Description:
About 25% of the residues lie in helices and about 25% in strands. By secondary structure, it is of the alpha+beta class. The longest helix is centred in the middle third of the chain and has 22 residues, at about 90-110.
Amino acid sequence: MFVYAEPCKEGLELKHLNLASLDEGGNMKILPSSGDLEPLIQESQAVLDDYSDAVEYSRGLLNPDQHQADPEDKASTYTLTNVVPQITNFLDETWSTYLDVVRHRLNNFCRGKQSYMINGVTVSGATIQRGNEARLGIPKHLWLAYCCPRFDRNSPYEVRFMFPSYGAYALNEQEGHEVTEVPLKTLERFLKKQMDTESNLSIFYKDCVSENTFRKRRKR
Length: 220
């Protein structure tokens, strides 16, 4: 079971949804056909027309459907607020394959009821335009990090060092888009450099402390 929670430090806020109007209710609605879209919707989020001429790009999911068990949860990942433009061959040949690797790793070696995953992008500054308007920001990198507080300590060495937490990033380009897997702290330093900030960055609360460590200490 994968739970997309945010066990993050206070101050690191993750927002995924946009509201077209403050007067609307909190429930999501099915969008009308593109010709009937309210201007406010297009001002606050992407619409399908934004991808119509983006021939090199596919709609890549930030919260991937591979990690959802419930059909309704899977369906909810296909909203345009959960999508970023990804180079098609990078998405198909590299990133989707890696997401499956992570899914199998956590299914096989993560114990307990919960694991956590956070996905994100770094900004390139490039955009996809529709008409004369910049509509979609093109990510420079995609990255992810997972936290598995309880894991199998008898797992093979080639995966055991990747617990309780690990991360990865890859370039959103036609070439050179191999996935680089790194420890959590290395990923945080990489993201700070990409964001050009000196602010503290902590992806998981207390860096995803292993419950295995606590159990071992109690036995002594």
